[in-house]
Amino acid sequence: MKKLFAVLAILHVLILGAVAQTPDDLNEGTRLEYDSANSIWRFKWWARSGRTYFIQHSDNLMNPWQWVPMVEVGNDSIKEWGFTSTGNKIFFRLKYSDQPTTDPNGDDFDGDGISNLAELQMGLDPTKVDSDGDGMPDGWELAHGLNPLVNDAYLDPDGDGYANITEYLAGTDPQVADGEVGQGFSATGLRLYTPLE
């Protein structure tokens, strides 16, 4: 029975390897192939024209996905990313945008003030304004010395009694305590967020 299973598995791999990737393939026809001549792995997919692609990888699905620092524009052909790995497993997924672009690296698809490529290089999500989901845009957090990968909405780095999220909503600087009270805060117009005790 084991020999039969092994033979069927080999036939399955040979048949899949012989079939060309097409625009009709599920999940953009993603495939992982080993290039023994060059001793590298190749992650391949059918890249549709008008789409911009981002790659994520993980060696353990319990850990967060990490971004590959590259942006690929589709042109109705197969795209690939080559890599080496010493791990015993790796997982991949594609994210894409259908937003038109002439500068996929320099454009800012999510509108947070950081280019697509810069976001990938910092481990941020180029498809989300707020990568960590704390209510403050990535660009604002970086400009104000906060971490866009950590939910720091309820921290108060300047010790003025106002949480970062409150400072963001009021348009004040979370790193500067002096002169903030009375400049943008209203007891009736703005709900003040403070750290939970």
Comma- or semicolon-separated keywords:
four-stranded antiparallel β-sheet; 197 residues; elongated; Immunoglobulin-like; 4 helices; 19% helix; disordered N terminus; alpha+beta; disordered C terminus; 2 domains
Task: Describe the SSE topology.
Elements: H1 2-18, E1 31-35, E2 40-47, E3 52-58, E4 66-67, E5 72-73, E6 77-83, E7 91-97, H2 116-122, H3 138-143, H4 164-170
Antiparallel strand pairs: 1-2, 2-6, 3-4, 3-5, 3-7
Task: Note down, in words, how this protein is organized.
- The protein has 2 domains: 28-129, Immunoglobulin-like; 131-197, no CATH class.
- The protein is 19% helix and 19% strand.
- The protein has helices at 2-18, 116-122, 138-143, 164-170; strands at residues 31-35, 40-47, 52-58, 66-67, 72-73, 77-83, 91-97.
- Strand 3 (52-58) and strand 4 form a beta hairpin.
- The relative contact order is 0.10.
